Amino acid sequence: MTRASASAETGQGTLPSFDGTGNRIFLALLGLMLAFAGAGAGSALILRPSPAHGAHPPVRIEPAPAVYAALPTLTLTLNDGRRLQELRLRAVLEFDPATPMEAVTPHLPRIADAIGQRLLEVNPAELRGADGQIYVKDALRYVANKTIRPLKLRQVLIQDMLLR
Q1: Are strands 153-163 and 84-95 parallel, antiparallel or unpaired?
Q2: SS3 labels along the chain
Q3: Residue ranges in the chain modelled with pLDDT below 50
Q4: Residue-wise pLDDT tens digits, 144-164
Q5: What distance in Å separates the CA atoms of residue 66 and residue 22, rounded to the nearest whole number?
Q6: What is the predicted pLDDT for the residue at 87?
Q7: What distance in Å separates the CA atoms of residue 40 and residue 48, rounded to the nearest whole number?
Q8: Under CATH, which architecture does the 67-163 domain have?
Q9: Measured between alpha carbons, how far is 25 from 30 in angstroms, rounded to an integer?
Q10: Residue 27 to residues 19, 24, 40, Cα–Cα distance (Å)
Q11: CB of 139 within 8 A of CB of 60?
Q12: 91 and 156 Cβ atoms separated by less than 8 Å
């Protein structure tokens, strides 16, 4: 009589017997996972970029200092129809390093006059907030490029802009 037939006769169900195969599969998968993790970490350490032996250090190129020309301080009285408001503006123009300062200096009063005339036509409400600075920078860039035609303006920097 076998076990299955004996338990069938007694009416009891048989439980499957585990010989440790489930434990062996779990340990094998765990070992495989650890092996892959170790291989990934090892390859990351081996394949990381390293400086070449005998290579020269990278050459650092320092940009040449730009030419800065400060406009005279502009003080304008603007009218919005109800009241008068005062605009005080200090700006700096940045040119390429190859531009000689002697070529820029004679044009600064003309640029200041032209931007003053242009800003007198503007409603003071348009000069409030960040949009006002953008408007002034664009106007200064346009006037400066028009006045100093062969020279290239690199950037307009606003030092101080006060509307009261």
Answers
A1: antiparallel
A2: CCHHHHHHHHCCCCCCCCCCHHHHHHHHHHHHHHHHHHHHHHHHHHCCCCCCCCCCCCCCCCCCCCEEEECCCEEEEEECCCCEEEEEEEEEEEECCCCCHHHHHHHHHHHHHHHHHHHHCCCHHHHCHHHHHHHHHHHHHHHHHHHCCCCCEEEEEEEEEEEC
A3: 6-7
A4: 888 888 888 888 988 888 888
A5: 75
A6: 86
A7: 12
A8: 2-Layer Sandwich (3.30)
A9: 9
A10: 14, 5, 20
A11: no
A12: yes
Domain ranges of the chain: 19-51, 67-163
Residue 97 to residues 63, 64, 89, 137, 157: CA-CA distances in angstroms? 9, 6, 25, 21, 16
Percent of the chain exceeding pLDDT 70 equals 82
Whole-number mean pLDDT of the chain? 81
User: Rounded to whole angstroms, how far apart are CA atoms 157 and 74?
Assistant: 14
What six digits make up the tokens of 3?
């076990």
User: What is the per-residue pLDDT for 90?
Assistant: 92
